[in-house]
Amino acid sequence: MSESLERRDFLKAGAAVAAGGAALAAALSPLKDFDENITLDEFLQKHYKELSEKEKQEVFTRIQNKVKKEYGVDAEVKDPKAIDGVEFGYALNLSRCIGCRRCVNACSEENNCGKDPDLQYIRVLKLPKESMDIEKSDHHYEAGEVPEKGFAYMPVQCHQCEDAPCVKVCPVQATWKESDGVTVVDYDWCIGCRYCEAACPYWARRFNFKKPEIPAEEINPNMGYLSNRPRPRGVVEKCTFCLHRTREGNNPACQEACPVGARIFGNLLDSESAVRKVIDTKRVFVLKEDAGTNPRFYYFLDS
Amino acid sequence: MESIRKYPAFILRCVRLSLAGGPLFYTWMTVLTCIILLGVNAWARQLASGLHLTSMNDQVSWGFYIGNFTFFVGVAAGGVILTIPFHLYKKLELRQALVFCDMQAIASIVTCLLFITVDLGRPDRFWHLIPGIGKFNFPISMLSWDVITLNGFLLINLHVWGYHLYMKYLKREVSPLVHKPFVAVAMLWALSALTVEAFLFAGLGARHGWNSAVVGPRMIASAFATGPAFMIIALLVIRSTTRYGIDDKVIHWLRRVLQVTSLICLYLLVNEVFVELYAGTGHGASMKHLLFGLHDHVSLVVPFWMAMIMMTIASILLLLPWSKNHSGVLIFACGLLFVGLWLDKNVGFILSAFIPTPLGEVVDLAPTWSEWMVCCGIWAFGLMIYTLLAKVSIPILMDSTSHYDEDGVLSKSSAEKEVQGA
After folding, report:
1. Is there a cis peptide before residue B139, judged by omega within 30 degrees of 0?
2. Is A137 on the interface with B (CB under 8 A)?
3. What residues have CB less than 8 Å from B414, skipping those under 6 apart?
4. Positive or negative CA dihedral for B27, B33, B39, B41?
5. What digits encode the pLDDT tens for the residues A6-45?
6. Kind of pairing, strands A284-285 and A151-156?
7. Mean per-residue pLDDT, A186-195
8. Deepest of A20, B170, B172, B221, by most Cβ within 10 A of its Cβ?
């Protein structure tokens, strides 16, 4: 082949590449309907632990403005710190739980969880009374008929493990354990790889496959940066023991909603706390102890 | 100095070689481009509205993207099955096919990286993964090891391929100091990448289907089956569409490798099935679901049995002398093995580990159209890269052989004639 022939081919190919570029632009056109508006500030935002106090305030203000714009709600984004000498723990009385799922709904409301799709942190398992084998559990029973004779109910949420596999596997340290034992996620740092979801033995993590839809009237304006502020699409979230409440001395929403007093929450380091009383006086156990993650969530039965 | 001065001309030549070709080449590239564009379109939709367009959900939080990613790590690393015997056991007749190992590795790793990218919920935050700028969880997270092994493998192979080709272009011998150490590292690196890949899954205590010591050996065995299977098909196609001489000995060597590795793959699978089922513990629920379905959820059963049947038929065909003498039979067997192992990696390895969930929930799933289109787009992109790498390499290698005969190339025609033929 002579040089001129090769050049002709070269030019033809060049024309093809140009046509390809136009086709590429057409193929990319769905991007104009992008449903998350990512600003430069958001794109460049540093990891939570590397933000200065001033930068944090800017971020919180930005989130408040976003909530105002999107839902018309005046929210306050706070960042309560873990308290020295406090390690949160939970104990759940399986003899009392009636499987009504009031905790599930209270949690979802408190934590500004997406309602479409319905994202819930707590999963209640309906088990045959004689079995603790979760393979036999029913996750989708009708809540109207509880408690059903011959069955027991076991709510499962994040166990705030001491040796949390989800923290270990995160490639970008977007999730970590706070000094009060709560595992948190920086929703502005998570890259959405979902490795933590695969690593969790308690199926406690949720991913926003879709932009969370929350009716404006259901927005809870009392927000924590590391807990219940609205999450963007494409990141992982989870139960934080309602740290925006509990770090200010209140109980988690699921505890308050329980109609039968099955849920007991408190400071594990305080020998007078209700949760310590349970652990000290009852035969408590943790779910999947063999997973080796040392949960801070205990179950017990009335003897 | 000469080597630096001539580099721009070399690059220009590469660009020209990759753009010019015959009708067959243009048809092939047009088809690939169309598929890529469809994939780009599907990905753009996914970017704009979220991963809910895939079959993934909180129950099955990894799907075909991660399955394909895992599979193509194997295809990439599988190429060293030629470099190891060549360099370690001096099987010199493999020389002419060596360059295809690098090409296969480069194209496959690009494919892997794309599959990771489309799987991310927030690809805009990829920079969080960059050591120094982001917050890289090394060495604790196995995913951080994976980022290093994959990108490192890509760079090493780009160097080995690019340097070798440039020296051929200059009609000079490769300098052992610049070449050999990287070739050696690439061999070890391939095995390490597969091991890291296996540990990424096997290290999770939450998933019984993955938490097994045989995951690593299976990863390596399947890499040495999918890698050579792809290579046989590619080499036979290249032999029939170009004048680049590929000796029967190369094909026969790869077929011999496959005879062993395909059986090892099946054997390790049998081990997994036996251990999970015979003891009858709760540990085996995923395997039970995979083989027979659980509580009327059977979406994985048919694809998994198909995978096992394909792998078995391919193994038998490869053992028969028939596949040695008929390249049609050989291509069929390799294709069957490749697809069978692909199904096994996606359905039998990735998806099955998610069902039942750690809380015992059993769900069904089926890939969505959007997901398929993204996958097809990425495969087509990988094939396009492979094609372009071959398009550039083959004429330069053949051109160099008019002076250097050691590559065992059949035709001594110039590169220009070669371009015409392609």
Report:
1. yes
2. yes
3. B398, B399, B402
4. negative
5. 677 778 778 877 888 889 999 999 998 887 778 899 999 9
6. unpaired
7. 97
8. B221
Count of residues for chain B?
Answer: 422
Instruction: Indicate the pairing of strand A175-177 with strand A123-128.
Output: unpaired
CB contact under 8 A, B119 and A189: no
Q: What is the Cα–Cα distance from A123 to B58, expressed in whole angstroms? A: 12
pTM, 2 dp: 0.93
At B413 the pLDDT is 40
Q: What is the pLDDT of residue B298?
A: 94
Pairing assessment for the beta strands A88-93 and A297-300 based on DSSP bridges: parallel
In b/e form, how buried is each residue of B147-161, taking b as 16+ CB within 10 angstroms? bbbbebbbebbebbb
Sign of the Cα torsion B278, B282, B284, B287 reads: positive
d(CA B394, CA B237): 13
Instruction: Give per-residue pLDDT as tens, A81-125.
Output: 999 999 999 999 999 999 999 999 999 999 999 998 899 999 999
Identify the pLDDT of residue A55. 96
Tens of pLDDT, residues A211-256: 999 999 999 999 999 999 999 999 999 999 999 999 999 999 999 9
Distance (Å, whole) CA A286 – CA A196: 21
Q: Which residues of chain B have pLDDT under 70?
A: 1, 401-422
Q: How many Cβ atoms are within 10 Å of A194's Cβ, its own excluded?
A: 24
Best mutation target among B53, B359, B414, B417 (most A Cβ atoms within 10 Å) is B359
Query: Does A267 contact chain B (CB < 8 Å)?
Result: no
Cβ contact (<8 Å) for A193 and B119? Answer: yes
Beta partners for A205?
A: A238
Residues 6+ apart with CB under 8 A from B415: B17, B395, B396, B398, B399
**Closest of B106, B69, B81, B66 to residue B191, by C-alpha:** B81
Nearest to A235 among B121, B205, B285 (CB): B121
Contact B142 A210 (CB under 8 A): no
User: How much of chain A exceeds pLDDT 70, in percent?
Assistant: 98
Residue with tokens 């994939």: B39
Identify from A3, A8, A9 which residue to disrupt to test chain B contact, counting B C-beta atoms within 10 A and taking the largest count.
Answer: A9
Structure tokens at B317: 């065909």
Number of other CB atoms surrounding residue B210 within 10 Å: 21
Strand A297-300 and strand A151-156: the pairing is unpaired
Q: In sequence order, which residues have a C-beta less than 8 Å from that of residue A198 and are 6 or more positions away?
A: A169, B61, B62, B204, B206, B207, B354
Positive or negative: CA dihedral A75, A76, A79, A81: negative
Q: What is the DSSP letter of B348?
A: I
Q: Report the alpha-carbon distance of residue A178 to residue A168 in Å, rounded.
A: 14
Task: Determine contact: A19 vs chain B, CB below 8 A.
Answer: no
| pLDDT over 90 at A5, yes or no | no
Query: According to the model, what pLDDT value does residue A199 have?
Result: 97
Inter-chain residue contact A135 with B49, CB threshold 8 Å: no
